[in-house]
Amino acid sequence: xxxxxxxxxxxxxxxxxxxxxxxxxxxxxxxxxxxxxxxxxxxxxxxxxxxxxxxxxxxxxxxxxxxxxxxxxxxxxxxxxxxxxxxxxxxxxxxxxxxxxxxxxxxxxxxxxxxxxxxxxxxxxxxxxxxxxxxxxxxxxxxxxxxxxxxxxxxxxxxxxxxxxxxxxxxxxxxxxxxxxxxxxxxxxxxxxxxxxxxxxxxxxxxxxxxxxxxxxxxxxxxxxxxxxxxxxxxxxxxxxxxxxxxx
Length: 248
What we know:
Elements: E1 2-13, E2 17-29, E3 34-38, H1 45-53, E4 60-65, E5 68-69, H2 75-81, E6 83-86, E7 93-97, H3 98-106, H4 112-121, H5 126-129, E8 133-134, H6 140-154, E9 158-162, H7 170-185, E10 191-195, H8 199-202, E11 207-212, E12 215-221, H9 222-229
Parallel strand pairs: 3-10, 3-11, 6-9, 9-10
Antiparallel strand pairs: 1-2, 1-4, 4-5, 7-8, 11-12
C-alpha cells in the first residue's frame, strides 16, 4: 500500500519566494487497486507521480510504502523495494536491444521465449521486436508498449504511469487501453497508478483522484467520480488523428 501524508512540494520563484506545486496531499492507494489521478493541466498530477518515484523530494510531508517511510529514499532504493515508473516520453537507448532491456528490468537472464511472452502481452509481435534496438526507428506507440512490457517483467508491487497516452496515435491508444484492462484483471497483490485525463483510461479505474491547484479536489470509486467529470475540460476523448497499423 502507498500512503501520502500531507505531502507538499515547492520550487523557488523570484526574490526568495516559492511556488507551491503540490499542497498538503494526503492519499492512500490500496493493494489490488488501479487508481487514475486526473485533473486540469498544470494541477500537479505529474509532479505527484515524480514525488512517488523519488524523482522529486517533498518540501514537507511523508510518503510510506507498505508501512515503511520512503520519503528520503532514492529512486534506486524505491525501485528495489518494488516501485516502477513509466515516463510520458520513454527513454531511447541506442545500441540496447529490446531483449536486453527486458533482462535488465527483470533482473534475470530471461529466455527468448519468456521475453516474447511479455511483448505479446502488450500486443507486439515478439519476433519483430525482440532483437530491435531502442532507437528512433521505433514509433512512440511501440516505445510505450515496450516500456509497459519492461514494467510487467519487473512484476513490482506498485507501477506508476505518467500520462501514457502522450504522443501516441489512435491505433496505439486503443491497444494501450487493452493492455491496462488486462493489467487490471491480473493486478492481484499489486497496485497501479495512472496519471491521465483520457475518458477511456478513467473508465478502467477502480478509483479516481482529482487533483486541482495542487490539492486533492475529490477522490472515490470510478462510478461516483467519473459522472461528475464528464463534459468538463478535465476529461478528454482520444478520438482524432489517423492511425496506421505500422505505427502500433
